[in-house]
Structures are given as C-alpha cells and as structure tokens.
Amino acid sequence: MRETSSAANAKLYQIIPSEVCFSCDVCCRFLEADSPLAPIFTEKEKENAVAHGADPTLFRPQADGKSAQIQLKPHKDFYICPFFDPETSHCTIYPIRPLDCQLYPFALMFSEDRNEVVLGVDTLCPFGEEHLETEAFQRHIRHVIDYVESEAVTAQIAANWSLIGDYQDTVKIVHTLAQLTDATSLANT
Description:
By secondary structure, this protein is of the alpha+beta class. It has two domains: 17-97, no CATH class; 105-189, no CATH class. The chain is built from eight helices and eleven strands. It has helices spanning 6-9, 18-22, 43-51, 99-103, 126-131, 135-148, 151-159, 178-183; strands at 29-30, 40-41, 59-61, 68-70, 73-75, 78-80, 84-85, 90-91, 106-110, 117-122, 171-176. The strands form four sheets. A three-stranded antiparallel β-sheet has the order 1-6-5, with no helix packed on it. Strands 2-4-3 form a three-stranded antiparallel β-sheet.
C-alpha cells in the first residue's frame, strides 16, 4: 500500500492567476446544453452546494449512482454553468466548487482505447497551452498527480467514477493513473 502523499493533505491550488481566468472566455461556457464537459459534483459536493443555496433540481444523476452533473443554462449563443457570472467571469461558489472544477485545466479521462485512466491538460485553456512546458507548470503537474493519486482522492474518484470523462483529443496526456485505472476497472467495461 502506498503512503498518503503530503500533497493530498494540502489544498489543490490553482496555478492560473485570477486575472487571467477573469479575462478568458473558455471555461464555464459550453456549446451544447447537454455537454459532457459540464461539471460533475460528487454526492458530498452536491450536498454542500445545496446547503449553500443551490437549487437541487440543477443536478442530473450520473451513471455511477453517486455523482451528479450540473444542468447548464442558456446564455447568448452558448450555455453556461449556473454558478458562473458572465458579467464578472467569477464563480459564485468558488470556495466550494467541485473537484472537477478545481482540477481545471487538468482533466481526468479514459485513454483513447479506454484501457487506462489518464490525467491531461486541456489545450483549449490558453494559459495551460502557453505555460505547459514551463518549469513552474511542470512542478504543478507533479502536485496535481500527487493529489489525485493520494489514497483519499483516488477513493473519492473511484466512488464517483463519472468524474472520469471520455477521451478528448484537445487534452494533452501528462500521466497515466494506474491506481485509479485499477480502482475503476468495472466502470471501464
């Protein structure tokens, strides 16, 4: 059994500076009302959001029977997360946002052949694409890997395996998550 990483005990920090996020027009916006990329909330995250005033009908149950995907709302020619304020580009639940959002621009997904769970960086994120090869971003990748591979987070994701998306060719794979692959092997059939 692997020891729990100290990174797992720490908070997952966001490497992208706030002013960059607030001026971007990529995340929290979707082309389709039923986009598979809309945020997934674990059962605890959903309960926490509802306790903080979120409408419980905004959450659609997922195949794992525990997690729920947020229902997007129309905004101009696209759809947005209901917790996203398009006027300020701020998340109205930022302090309690789900792991799915905390990870971004990283994505958990199945490999193209669906044989492995991988961690990747979404190249649609301008900051991620521009800074991917920098030393600071490479250190952050290691931090995210340690966090996701910690015993507690791996167990949380395995129990809420709908957090693992389908393969996306816009995501550059940075690591294969062997423990998560093993823990979710039933979901991958």
